[in-house]
């Protein structure tokens, strides 16, 4: 299990501060959902926590060790046991969708090959709902299908920790429901997840902790049941925005409406 901590982390883009003095610990074995208005810095914070971006200042730690001081073997072990689901899928255009999904297995599990590798890849593609031909290129499938392949690539090796950026964006209702059920299954199996999302259904179904972000700063963080009752004006505004297009509510969503 991995504990990810950010100590005084800042991120500049030119003269603009995207992330400002963030201190936070993401506990293992739980699901944290990052919420905030568009442009608040959710995706940048997620990539910093995953070690995909280097902070301008501050330190990102994996189990108390600075991420960028990890030895090669330690970083390889972290990559082997974690996955990242990108908002735009980020598939390799010059590879088939099968090859995209197979990539983590080939890199981190070289002993898996042939029929075993093929079986794992095709099983995972079916699990996320991809029904098209595995030899197609990303340019030959829809944006929603690309997203499904991106999810399959991240979970094919059964990582212990998932970083997930807007997993339901650009998905139809059937695909969205399938992804939610898949993420729920992973949570039950004990997979730690850090998710950037604006989906009320995802928050209600998965969130153990909420992290409210505004203009690159953490406004509020804590257990779902505590933060959803917050009177902080930014938190209330973010939660109201998340709920804006919801037409039917379960009990947790109705609770979110309290004091908003």
UniProtKB/TrEMBL annotation:
PROSITE patterns, per the entry: ABC_TRANSPORTER_1 (PS00211), ABC_TRANSPORTER_2 (PS50893)
InterPro entries: AAA+_ATPase, ABC_transporter-like_ATP-bd, ABC_transporter-like_CS, P-loop_NTPase
Residue ranges constituting the ABC transporter domain according to the UniProt record: 4-240
GO molecular function, one term: ATP hydrolysis activity
Keywords, ordered alphabetically: ATP-binding, Nucleotide-binding, Transport
Record protein name field: ABC transporter related protein
